[in-house]
Specification:
It is found in: Endomembrane system; Membrane. The chain is of the alpha/beta class. It contains 14 helices and 11 strands. α13 links the parallel β8 and β9. The termini are far apart.
Length: about 475
């Protein structure tokens, strides 16, 4: 019996030792796995953990590869649907043995081709043109905060900062445009706290430029403040309406503390240190009086009387989206049309100038949803502001917002939009994707490498 028990004892001992060794190995593997998770940022809630383990990056310099895949699949689905429709139509024709006795008129045939072939192909074409392939470079990619807080892909696309195409600072003095849904304030906590640091009931600081910087960087809408807005100490009553439209306002009605200039005379286009670069000569009324009423040598310069003649008596209210001192609104007022003019004080008091002329300034940035209800504007006019620097996806969001507020039959006036020749096709497709009716369309050279594009387009009914 002792001989039989000894081997059994040794076998149990060996099995126990093996279990101990196996347990130690399990502990070692577990610790190493935890260390790997930790180094990947798992406990820090790092969104790149999947990229660390699977070696796949979903984002290259702000480009979403998943979005690319979904966009390509969307195009393929459209093409497949079109193919199936055409095949079923052909099969239906084959069942009709005598095609010569068919009752299909040329009008019905034309309608079929337009609705069932051309429009789906055009839609797929536009979708493909909007795809932007990623620029893959060595190194890690940084991501703006709060993007992945949202699940819906369209929200993430919207709030991702849009870099300027030309690689330079835009009219805002920024390298990117920050579309806003209010989330941007979280990443600008210090600036927002500075803006809201005041004594309740007292005068506000002369800090409108702080508020404007917050708006441009996506922190918008701003909170209301319980302090009293400052005005010029020497404020004078504005000129009467029959004088104010074409007269430089009284400079004492403007707070000049945050500008390089201290009066309207300093803002002359002849002064190289005036503090702003766009809208050359827009503070000189003699030059402004010539705009949109005087023929020029450029075919892209449309006249107001010609534009209004397209829809006589129908244009009553509209929006001028650009940069300027309200001259377009002043001219339209002479035709009994009310125009709201968007403006930011980019180096000069544009808002004050527009208001002192007796016109309506709308203090909004390019990254804001326009504060108008759907299908309400008769006219949208834009010039000198949204040009070839703008990111195509950002432009897409803007144009869809314009389409939202423009009523059926309303006019979209693209006035002297300019871009590089090589980018012209991209921008033309952006304007043409809405299938507006063309009343005017002109292209002319601006320089050796740049061109002007002007268009007067009418929104279709799209009745449901």
């Amino acid at each position: 019996m002792r001989i039989l028990c000894f081997p059994k004892y040794r076998f149990s001992k060996i099995l126990g030792m093996f279990q101990i060794v196996l347990g130690v190995l399990v502990v070692i593997v577990s610790v190493s796995s935890l260390l790997r998770f930790y180094s990947a940022g798992f406990f820090m809630h790092n969104e790149d953990i999947c990229k660390q383990f699977y070696g796949v990056q979903d984002v290259y310099e702000g480009f979403d590869v998943v979005s690319l895949s979904s966009r390509v699949n969307e195009v393929l689905d459209k093409m497949l649907t079109l193919q199936e429709k055409l095949e079923s139509t052909v099969q239906g024709l084959e069942k009709n043995k005598d095609l010569s006795k068919g009752n299909v008129s040329m009008l019905e045939y034309k309608k079929f081709i337009e609705e069932e072939v051309i429009q789906p192909l055009y839609s797929a074409h536009i979708t493909l043109r909007q795809i932007r392939l990623p620029r893959v470079e060595n190194g890690t990619t940084s991501e703006d905060p709060l993007i992945n807080t949202f699940v819906t892909e369209e929200i993430k696309k919207y709030i991702t900062p849009k870099e300027n195409r030309v690689g330079k600072k835009n009219i805002y003095g920024s390298e990117k445009i920050y579309n806003t849904i209010g989330h941007g304030c979280v990443s600008m906590k210090e600036q927002l706290q500075t803006y809201m640091d005041y004594d309740i009931g007292s005068f506000c600081k002369d800090d409108w430029n702080v508020a404007q910087n917050l708006m441009i960087k996506g922190c918008d809408p701003l909170p209301r403040r319980r302090c009293l807005t400052r005005a010029s100490k020497l404020y004078q009553k504005p000129y009467p309406i029959n004088e104010s439209l074409w007269r430089i306002p009284d400079g004492r009605n403007v707070r000049w503390s945050n500008y390089l200039c201290r009066n309207f005379e300093c803002l002359s286009s002849k002064n190289p240190k005036r503090g702003y670069s766009k809208c050359t000569g827009c503070f000189e009324m003699e030059k402004e009086k010539l705009k949109w009423v005087t023929n020029t040598s450029l075919p892209t310069d449309f006249l107001i009387k010609d534009a209004l003649g397209v829809k006589p008596g129908e244009i009553r209210i509209g929006l001028d989206f650009g940069i300027g001192t309200g001259t377009f609104a002043a001219r339209m007022r002479e035709h009994n049309v009310t125009i709201v003019t968007t403006a930011l004080n980019l180096g000069a008091p544009f808002n004050e100038m527009i208001a002192l002329r007796g016109l309506i300034p709308l203090y909004v940035t390019l990254n804001q949803r326009l504060p108008f209800f759907d299908n309400t504007m008769d006219l949208i006019h834009t010039t000198g502001f949204m040009d070839g620097w703008i990111d195509l996806q950002l432009m897409d969001f803007i144009l869809f917002d314009w389409d939202r507020i423009l009523r059926p039959g309303g006019l979209l006036w693209i006035d002297r939009f300019f871009c590089n020749r090589k980018d012209l096709d991209d921008y033309m497709y952006m304007f043409l994707q809405f299938r507006y009716k063309k009343h005017k369309w002109a292209i002319s050279p601006k320089s050796k490498d740049e061109v002007f594009l002007s268009a007067l387009l009418e929104k279709p009914p799209r009745s449901l």
